[in-house]
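Predict structure. Chain length: 108.
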Amino acid sequence: MSIVVNLYYTGKNGAAREFVKEMTESGLVEFIRNEPGNERYEYFFSADDPETVLLIDRWENQEAIDRHHALPVMAQIAKLRDKYDLSMKVERFTPDELPEQDQKFIRK
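Prediction complete.
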């Protein structure tokens, strides 16, 4: 079963957006997207809080997350988080089927 991890990166003076820019331009984002077991790695910018960026990170299972965390790329990411002085909030979810009673609210 897939695991979705939402990571909220918050900084000051545009630091979170600069972090995303460097992650992308350095090739780290593409590297992670190509890791075995990665199903999604995508950043979103908040309309309400310009200092926060949301990363939606989806993995095939916990083993895939553990392999990712064991790679040297994690040290590179940690350095960038320190460079931009970012704080983080993390949420984990496992996808569930949309209940039938909620289907009527979805426009297809």
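Summary: Residues 75 and 81 are 10 Å apart (CA to CA).
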